[in-house]
Amino acid sequence: MGDHPTIPLDFTELPEGEMRARALGFYEAMKTRRTVRDFSDRDVPREIIEHAILTAGTAPSGANHQPWFFSVIGRGPLRKTLREAAEAEERAFYEGKAGAEWLEALGPLGTDADKPFLETAPWLIAVFAQRRGGPKPGDNRKNYYVSESVGIACGLLLTSLHQAGLATLTHTPNPMGFLTELCGRPENEKPVMLIVVGYPADGARVPLHAIHKKPLDQICGFIE
Ligand code: IYR
């Protein structure tokens, strides 16, 4: 390690009982998150979204370049255009572009080309990955591990919104190049996903299929 400025780590150790209780409690809280596709039009305060994005911005990233940008779309006129653009792509997708294997995999989710939530939900967050940038505004350096970094940031964003008591949907219109233009983002940013945020509609239902999460022995192996 070269000579670089450092500060003392701010770290509070937890008693083991509390550590255990927090780990279990957080798992219990997170396993209640479901992807919601049926949204209410109720408002959600902007401050909640801002804090969720600040949380996303705490994600680790390649060389701390923080290669993400979140375009937050409220209830303005952009909504209708965005829905039309997304549904046009989705129609082509569901009418065959996806291919039989992909459509079969989506069968149990019951998704189709209609995306009313793009107009109903109070907030949409378009996530962009920056191929170039750097740690400071105006930098134009190469970014590293961009997909990994943005993926982690999206995970933190969804986690923050869930624990704030909101419903979320990771929507991936395919392809989603139209988001670049609609959100006025530069060409070197790649749209990654659209996160829909709000309250679930009264009586919202979710697919039974996705309730099954793989057990520990299928997703984890210990080498001790
Ligand atoms: N983008 C489409 C299709 C879709 C694809 C996957 I993989 C999903 O897990 C869910 C949907 C849509 O949003 O309907």
From TrEMBL:
* Pfam families recorded: Nitroreductase (PF00881)
Q: Which UniProt keywords apply?
A: Flavoprotein, FMN, Oxidoreductase
Q: Where is the Nitroreductase domain?
A: 31-199
Q: Which SUPFAM superfamilies match?
A: FMN-dependent nitroreductase-like
Protein name as it appears in the record: Oxidoreductase
Provenance organism? Glycocaulis albus
The organism's taxonomy opens as: Bacteria, Pseudomonadati, Pseudomonadota, Alphaproteobacteria, Maricaulales
